[in-house]
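Entry type: protein chain
Record version: 2
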Amino acid sequence: MGLRIPLILDRFPRWAFALTILVVVSGCAGSPQPDGINDPYEPTNRQVHAFNRGVDRILVGPAAKGYGTIVPMSAQRVVGNVARTLDLPGDIANNLLQANVADAATNSLRLAMNLTMGVVGLFDAATALGLPSQPTDFGETLAIWGVGEGVYLEVPLMGPSTARDAAGAVVDIVLNPTRLAFPNREANAASIAKLFARLGDRNRYAETVESILYESADSYAQARLLFLQNRRFELGRQALGTTAQDDAFIDPYEDPYGQ
């Protein structure tokens, strides 16, 4: 795999690279149970889940509800459009790392259209003109490179994940092209827009998220099962070349804490 990793990783900070290697190596621990769940760190994961649930109950849930109540839906859509446009450079980078030229071209065209006809991303002109979103991430890139899913992890403030996806999230954050291209003030503004977009998502899926977190007999097991099923389905769908519109699943834990 080493020969296939691009030179862009030369810019990867040493601490982030070390953390990524540690997480990927930790993914080799344990073996999946008959139900397909590899969770050797369940006691620790449950403690983190309890922490995340507390953060959601005290902070994230009320903030999302307030955001949904105070901010008009039209403004929420604008914030969501801006956040998705800001994610496009990262999607394009991952498309190229995956040797997925078709999606890289689609996302590049989406970026150009949303920055121009969409007035700097305020409107999703690309989707309106028939170019649907093709999101991806470095976790998917690692999967395409042949890195196994690894152990199940509950990450503080981020929620359910796997060793592979946790490592991918570190890379996506550190090497985000928007973050590297913009000065600190503009990069921080972009992060704030993404945070508010995530609050909008949390409010939109409030009923589903709260039924899992607060109404399930075992919210940890329920969240783990839903995440693994949805993530595996998503990666399988991408491998088959189908689109998001073919997906009947909704992942209520897709970065609900705005990371």
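Comment: Residues 1-12, 243-253, 255-259 have pLDDT under 50 and may be disordered.
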